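Database export, one record per block. Field names are fixed; values are copied verbatim from the stored entry.
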Amino acid sequence: MAGAPEMLTLEVATPLGLALRTKAESVQAPSVAGEFGVLAGHLPLLAALKAGLLRYRVEGKDHFAAVGHGFVEAGPEKVLLLTDQFALPKDIDLELARKELVDAEARLRELPTEYAGPDYEGIQRAADWAQARIDAVMLDAG
């Protein structure tokens, strides 16, 4: 399509400010309804973000980061993630993330099997955030 953008501006904002701003060929992010991908020219989209792996392609190379819960707004030229947590692989303490995951999983096992209250949600969020950091480091390492 003539005049269609070829690149996306990817921005990730946290309560501490703008954590990432780059031009990307594609972006994949985790939503509460599953992972989704965005290319330049994408129709407008607003989705709830869940903790997981952010994958973005810059100059033909995949890059990874861990993102927490929040919201994502995508359009033809820009993808904006508003999230409570963000970490690049170089900033992640892999052993700490692994310990946090083990601890969260142990706490989940202590809850009643069909428990779905705020305790469960908080622990599950911690487990998801730990897993996202582990995934970002492992995939970045190749």
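Remark 1: The radius of gyration is 16 Å.
Remark 2: Strands lie at 8-14, 17-24, 26-31, 34-39, 45-49, 52-58, 61-67, 70-74, 78-83, 86-87.
End of record.
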